[in-house]
Amino acid sequence: MNITVDWKGGMCLEGHNSEQKNTLFDSHSSENYVSKAATPMEIMLQSMAACSVMDVLSILEKKRKHIISLHVEVSGNRADEHPKVFTSVLLKFFVKSTDAALTDIERSVELSQQTYCSAAAMFKRSGCDVKTECYLDIV
């Protein structure tokens, strides 16, 4: 896997993968600067959530469950001192389905977090405490 990152002015950066798919990165807005994108650390949280959602959807599809929507809210806490690594993360999975049970969702999330999600594994191996909660709305 190879990527490139180009400076776009200010603190804005643009990453490119080998297929020229782009990701913008920036720092937080300040009095004299308006950010154009999420920070690298925010994108790390988004990446873990996205990785896990892809796993969960795949697992539920194999169980032949009909998913109407899947939404994840992520909160992370970071160390006070540099490097300010994530020390804990909570992922809340909100699923709407016509036929899935809460146990289906919980098991899918568990399999993702313990076996398949490479992004979650990187967080955990750095010492980060990763927890999940699952919520189901049957429609």
Plain-language structure description:
This protein has 139 residues and is α+β, with helices and mostly antiparallel strands. It has 2 domains: 1-37; 40-138, 2-Layer Sandwich (GMP Synthetase, Chain A, domain 3), CATH 3.30.300. 33% of the residues lie in helices and 33% in strands. The protein contains 3 helices and 6 strands. The chain has helices at residues 40-62, 102-116, 118-125, and strands at residues 4-7, 13-16, 22-25, 67-78, 86-97, 129-138. The strands form 2 sheets. Strands 1-2-3 form a 3-stranded antiparallel sheet, with no helix packed on it. The chain has a 3-stranded mixed sheet with strand order 4-5-6, with helices on one face. β2 and β3 (22-25) form a beta hairpin. α1 (40-62) packs across α3 (118-125). The longest helix is centred in the middle third of the chain and has 23 residues, at 40-62.
Based on CA atoms alone, the radius of gyration comes out at: 17 Å
CATH-defined superfamily of the largest domain:
K homology (KH) domain
What is the third-level CATH name, the topology of the largest domain? Answer: GMP Synthetase, Chain A, domain 3
The strand count comes to 6
Question: Tell me, what is the CATH class of the largest domain?
Answer: Alpha Beta
Secondary-structure-derived class: alpha+beta
Corresponding CATH architecture of the largest domain: 2-Layer Sandwich
- Envelope shape: globular
| Largest sheet properties | 3 strands, antiparallel
**SSE run:** EEEHEEHHE
**Counting H and I runs of at least 4 residues, what is the number of helices?**
3
Helical fraction: 25-40%
Widest sheet: strand order?
Answer: 1-2-3
Count of domains: 2
Task: Give the N-to-C terminal Cα separation.
Answer: 41 Å
Low-confidence stretches: none
